[in-house]
Write a structure and sequence with these properties.
Layout lengths: L1 H15 L17 H23 L11 H29 L8 H19 L1 H4 L1 H18 L1 H4 L7 H22 L6 H35 L9 H20 L4 H16 L15 H27 L4 H4 L1 H22 L9 H18 L8 H27 L10
Helix pairs in contact: 2-3, 2-16, 3-4, 3-6, 3-9, 3-14, 4-6, 6-8, 8-9, 9-10, 9-12, 9-14, 10-11, 11-12, 12-14, 14-15, 14-16, 15-16
Organism: Sulfurimonas xiamenensis
Protein name: NnrS family protein
Keywords: Membrane, Transmembrane, Transmembrane helix
């Protein structure tokens, strides 16, 4: 039985890689899109968040950065978005659309260099100027949209929503740089808050697909005879409430109606977790089901707290509570994608252990500490610093656990 299962899994993986390019001397770290993306993203997140914690708590100062807050928010949104999408699309689209050639080797290397150029240009935007940063960063997201064109142009429109969400984010990013360059009158931070809504929409769309792969892979490994289906109506309702909240916040940021929309968005996102309640089998005790459900729970908590704060305090602490979405749900979503792909797409079984437990625990702890600052204002500086340090620990553990997999050929001998 075990041999038959292994043969089936190998056949499925082989089907995914039938169109793997016949390129010679491809280093392992360029053998598939997720490898260089995660090798760079994990240390990048550690360095960026540690710097932010040290700067915001007043321990250090970086003289060439005039607007530290804009830098932090932009990099935590668009900076990691493009690396995450690079890994997600270049890994997933060749599986979803048979015949699509995987991106490897030199072509992949050039795209990675483009992402690095975007990061460097934005870090030094006060020295090199807005236009260079805008060129590299918009070029990166634009290339990703072009790479995803098969999904957008698919006649069945099975995954077109991912492409449409990326186009919307491209427009928002262009608007942001127009504001930074003085061509748009809208405040840059207001644009980034609006962009967060677009990021949440993209995460909800992507997590529906990640859940389908991860939970069904888990049940197959466990011998559970059932199928997990992420129901589109629940995700679509959550997306509708997030978009509505985002639009109303932009035009009427402290209107009481926004408070009720925040509570509605929280409830709609939380409802997605009901998909894990299968008809025949109980899977809510499985570690990865718990991990993945926490993504939705943290985002839901963030919107609910923001709604409550608007109704009770006229939004005095809304940006603190927004960190349940960003540090919590947003960060955990990226972490889960990195973990799941790190196991499955290096030819290994989806595994939970003390390391994966600790990664999720530290992410939750850091997010709760950061979001709880309004209740412990006398310890604000300490919470800023310690939460940023703890938030980096999951990615430090990821480096220890997964880098050896990312730098080695697939365990099952398949290319990629």
């Amino acid at each position: 039985m075990s041999n038959k299962k292994e043969q089936t899994q190998t056949l499925h993986a082989t089907n995914h890689y039938l169109y793997y390019p016949d390129e010679k001397d491809v280093p392992t770290y360029l053998a598939y899109g997720f490898r260089p993306a995660f090798l760079l993203l994990a240390p990048y997140l550690v360095i960026s968040m540690l710097l932010w914690g040290l700067i915001w708590s007043g321990i250090i100062n970086i003289p060439f950065m005039d607007n530290i807050l804009i830098w932090h928010v932009y990099e935590m949104l668009f900076g990691i978005l493009t690396a995450g999408i690079l890994a997600f699309l270049t890994t997933g689209l060749p599986e979803l659309f048979p015949g699509m050639v995987p991106l490897i080797g030199k072509k992949l290397k050039y795209v990675v260099f483009l992402w690095l150029a975007g990061r460097i240009s934005f870090w030094f935007i006060d020295i090199t100027g807005v236009y260079i940063a805008a060129f590299f960063n918009l070029a990166m997201l634009g290339w990703l949209i072009w790479f995803a064109k098969d999904a957008v142009l698919d006649k069945l429109q099975r995954h077109a929503s991912l492409g449409y969400a990326m186009v919307a984010l491209f427009i928002l990013e262009a608007w942001f740089f127009a504001s930074m360059a003085g061509f748009a009158q809208t405040d840059a931070m207001d644009i980034l808050k609006t962009a967060l809504g677009g990021h949440v929409v993209l995460i909800l769309l992507a997590m529906r697909r990640v859940n389908m792969e991860a939970v069904n892979e888990l049940m197959e490994d466990k011998g559970i005879d059932d199928i997990y289906i992420a129901r589109p109506p629940l995700t679509n309702l959550a997306i509708f409430t997030v978009i509505t909240f985002t639009i109303v916040e932009f035009f009427y940021p402290y209107n009481s109606a926004l408070g009720w929309l925040g509570l509605a968005a929280g409830a709609a996102i939380l409802a997605i977790t009901s998909d894990y309640n299968l008809k025949d089998k109980f899977i809510l005790n499985q570690p990865y089901v718990i991990y993945l459900s926490l993504v939705f729970i943290m985002i839901a908590v963030g919107y609910a707290f923001m709604g409550w704060d608007i109704l009770s305090n006229k939004g005095a602490n809304i940006n603190h509570f927004r960190h349940f979405i960003t540090s919590g749900g947003y960060g955990l979503a990226y972490l889960m994608v990195m973990i799941i792909i790190g196991w499955i797409h290096t030819g290994r079984h989806l595994t939970s252990n003390i390391y994966t437990h600790l990664m999720v625990f530290f992410m939750l702890l850091a997010s709760i500490m950061r979001g709880s600052i309004p209740f412990f204002e006398e310890y604000a500086n300490e919470l800023y610093l310690y939460s940023s340090i703890i938030w980096t620990l999951p990615f430090a553990i990821y480096i220890k656990l997964f880098f050896k997999f990312l730098l080695s050929p697939r365990a099952d001998g398949i290319k990629g």
